[in-house]
Write a structure and sequence with these properties.
The radius of gyration is 15 Å and the shape is globular. The strands form 2 sheets. A 5-stranded antiparallel β-sheet has the order 3-4-5-6-7. The chain has a two-stranded antiparallel ribbon with strand order 1-2. It has one domain (2-151). Helices cover 31% and strands 24% of the residues. The chain is an alpha+beta fold. A hairpin with a 5-residue loop joins strand 6 (119-124) and strand 7 (130-134).
């Protein structure tokens, strides 16, 4: 599937078109509102190409649905255009999921996308208070509130 293939030509086109607030990745149009989003999207796409057993425990690679939802989350967050938000660390999750991780000082946010595309988050405040819930992928206001908590001054 073209969505999961990223070659040098596509990568160059993504970087060139970022300033225009849009990128084509493998034939799929993905709007990019922050330059930081290119690398996490590239990493998410690459995770789909992991071999079964990538973790020495026999785990499958992330599913296409997990990768698709992870890219959607990155795009939704990039559209918020929060200038002091760094790109997330993107890692595979045993069982076929994808995890996005941000750490700013003592504040931490991880969003885990399950193989079926459902998602949840864990947010840790600078005081160590934890909040763990379903991630509101399609609720931009709730997503913004969550990211604002991550980037808020201590």
């Amino acid at each position: 599937m073209a969505l999961l293939t990223l070659d040098a030509t596509t990568t160059t086109a993504c970087e060139r078109r970022t300033a225009e607030h849009g990128s084509a990745v493998g034939g799929l149009h993905i709007p990019i509102f922050g330059a930081w989003a290119i690398e996490p999207i590239r990493t998410a796409l690459e995770l789909a190409n992991l071999e079964a057993g990538w973790d020495a425990e026999g785990s499958p690679p992330p599913t296409r649905e997990a990768v698709r939802v992870a890219i959607n989350i990155i795009t939704v967050i990039a559209e918020l255009d929060i200038h002091d938000l760094p790109g997330p660390r993107i890692v595979p999750v045993p069982g076929g999921g994808v995890q996005l991780e941000w750490q700013l000082g003592d504040r931490y946010l991880e969003i885990e996308v399950a193989p079926d595309g459902s998602a949840g988050y864990l947010a840790v405040s600078d005081t160590g208070e934890e909040d763990e819930q379903e991630f509101p992928v399609w609720a931009p206001r709730q997503v913004k509130d969550l990211i604002d908590r991550l980037t808020a001054a201590a």
